[in-house]
Amino acid sequence: NAGVTQTPKFQVLKTGQSMTLQCAQDMNHEYMSWYRQDPGMGLRLIHYSVGAGITDQGEVPNGYNVSRSTTEDFPLRLLSAAPSQTSVYFCASSRDQAGEKLFFGSGTQLSVL
Amino acid sequence: GESVGLHLPTLSVQEGDNSIINCAYSNSASDYFIWYKQESGKGPQFIIDIRSNMDKRQGQRVTVLLNKTVKHLSLQIAATQPGDSAVYFCAERTDSWGKLQFGAGTQVVVTP
């Protein structure tokens, strides 16, 4: 099992560009989520999904879209990148819908210039 | 120690000593708590969890204590090793849909 796989590991964007951060898990987990991590602020929830076809907003959803067409994949889309979205992004999944024992990916370092 | 959503303190521990990392959580209705370890450049890694109907839970070299009266959570690491150097996060589950509220983290530095 590869666990939770995130691509790319690093990305530089210009303000206004769009891109998709990919996340895939091979553990057949129903629950998946996206977090961003900023210095001194811990991890903040962007969006989450409790199963294919079901998504909901977290704490900081503005500027991001998600979809969940399959159990395995949960991509995060930045519609029009802003410098405030410079951060490290983590995807996580868990077997339990209630988000217990989250498995995290290795992260995507995103810089928006 | 740390409070959910605030600054990142540092705990310096001598190798072989026990470490205690503290966390103050905010929501008295939270029913589940979890500790993560994050090494530099990596994603958070699960350490141990505890439900609100428990006061203490032990794992391998780690113990989590929960005091609901004062909304306090702690992680104890026995015989701290250099490989324990990392940032440690506590998190509380704030609703039934699995939303986790993370603390800002505590940097643990193990010195020889």
Please outline what is shown here.
With 113 residues, chain A is an all-beta fold.
Describe this protein with a few key phrases.
heterodimer, A: 113 residues, mainly beta, 11 strands, 0% helix, B: 112 residues, six-stranded mixed β-sheet, five-stranded mixed β-sheet, globular
Q: What's the oligomerization state? A: heterodimer
Question: Which structural class should the secondary elements of chain A be placed in?
Answer: mainly beta
Quantity of strands of chain A, as a count: 11
Binned strand content of chain B: over 45%
Judging from the principal axes of the Cα atoms, what is the shape of chain B? globular
Low-confidence stretches of chain A: none
Portion in beta strands of chain A? over 45%
How large, in whole angstroms, is the Cα Rg of chain A?
13 Å
Distance between the termini of chain A: 36 Å
Low-confidence stretches of chain B: 1-6
Counted by DSSP, the helix tally of chain A is 0
Percent of residues in helices of chain A comes to under 10%
Please write the string of helix (H) and strand (E) elements of chain B. Answer: EEEEEEEEEEE
Sheet with the most strands, sense and barrel status of chain B? 6 strands, mixed
